[in-house]
Amino acid sequence: MTQRPTRLAPGSILDTLPMGRDALSVRRRVEAMERVMEGLFVIPGTNRKVGLDVILDIIPFAGSTIAAAVGGWMAWEARNLGMSKVQMARMFGNVGVDWALGMIPFVGAIPDFFFRSNTRNLRIIKRHLDKHHPSTATLDL
């Protein structure tokens, strides 16, 4: 008996994200993950976005570790672009600070709300891509 290949639903997240190793695909994946981790929705009455990073801090210890793993994945994607060791150290430092702040049970969500390591790391990645892969540059409106 042969298995039929599974088909993705049109418009699903896996259908829209590029899976290549080229710079543009990496940029789109990292931007999408940063949006999920830092900006899923806006808190009513404020202009502050909240994402999965802050929500995961509700789960003591494990939530911060899961968020750090996602941040580590973003840094791994950046490493595959050939970023320097200094840039990589800054990115892993941002993830480490975010993880350490998030390890404070329940209260860890407050500093995590202000220290957005994924946004900082995305900024480092974008600077690298704009300099070394200018064809991937996009306009931020």
Structure commentary:
This protein has 7 helices and 2 strands. With 141 residues, it is mainly alpha-helical. Strands 1-2 form a two-stranded antiparallel sheet. Helix 2 packs antiparallel against helix 4 and helix 2 runs antiparallel to helix 7. It is globular and about 40 Å long. The termini are far apart.
Topology, pairings included?
Elements (H helix, E strand, L loop, with lengths): L12 H4 L6 H16 L2 E2 L6 E2 L1 H5 L5 H18 L5 H18 L6 H6 L2 H16 L9
Helix pairs in contact: 2-4, 2-7, 4-5, 4-7, 5-7
The main β sheet shows up as:
2 strands, antiparallel
Secondary structure tally, helices: 7
Helix content: 55-70%
What is the SS-derived class?
A: mainly alpha
Portion of residues in beta strands equals: under 5%
Element pattern in H and E: HHEEHHHHH
- In the sheet with the most strands, the strands line up as 1-2
N→C terminal distance = 52 Å
Compute the average pLDDT. 85
> Number of DSSP strands?
2
